Amino acid sequence: MLDYRFVDGTRLTSVVEALIFSSPEPLPWEKLSEIIQKDEEELELDYESLHRIITRLNERYEENDLSFRIEETGGGFTFVTQPRYHPWLSIFQHENAYRKLSQSAIETLAIVAYRQPITKPEVDQIRGVDSGYILRQLLEKMLVKVSGRADSPGKPLLYKTTKYFLKHFGINSVDELPKPREIDEILKDDDMADHRRLLMERQMELEEGEATEMIEYYEEKRGAETDEVDAGEEDSDSVIEGVTETESELKEDEKPLRNTDKADELTGDDDDGSDEEPGKYPKNGAVSGNSSDEAD
Fold this sequence. Notes:
Elements: H1 12-22, H2 29-37, H3 47-63, E1 68-73, E2 76-81, H4 86-96, H5 103-115, E3 118-119, H6 120-127, H7 132-140, E4 144-149, E5 157-161, H8 163-168, H9 180-188, H10 192-267, H11 291-295
Antiparallel strand pairs: 1-2, 3-5, 4-5
């Protein structure tokens, strides 16, 4: 199996290496096996076979003193750098990875990780402050996800960590998270002194950035509410204008009717079938009558 070659002479180990290298996320062994066996039905790849292939690849990297290895983390296989390169990579990690998560975000994420599944009210109770904005940030960064609703009153949402969380912290399951007593021992270690100092130096910058984001978030929310109120006022003004225009039209329609009624009064015309136009009468003031008969 380790020396298996395809029809064109390509080594199986090289195909496995290429697939893991090109995947942006940890690649599960089931997906690896499915891709490779698609055109090679006679080839059977299980977890043990793939694990032996990856062990062979790591031995080759070790022989050539390369800086990376293939490890199983985050639910799949992925390339990682060797721990001995940490001093050179620590600056990059602090300036890149740690800038993405503020102290408040790390605190909220730790609560979710150790108490999952957990609701927002429970997180708020532990932290003592509202955590809605922080949870929204963690959802956007795909570090936590909604896993359902609790059976408590109001049916609040339940939050839990994601596979991206496992990859971000370099673990394969939440069971690998350090226990609280282990955390105390790690923090007391002298090797963590520089690490804590760098974190403290970045803290002020992160808090300033987070405060700016929160201000922008609430200003945007307030602006949206203001727009809705303005839209409602415009609709009310439109209704009032429409009513006013309708009243004006009705008044204009009533004017000729009133003039016609007045003319009928003066002419004495009561729809008697006369062909005489309403409102027209002799200049001498006679309203009606047959002048030729009176003359006779």
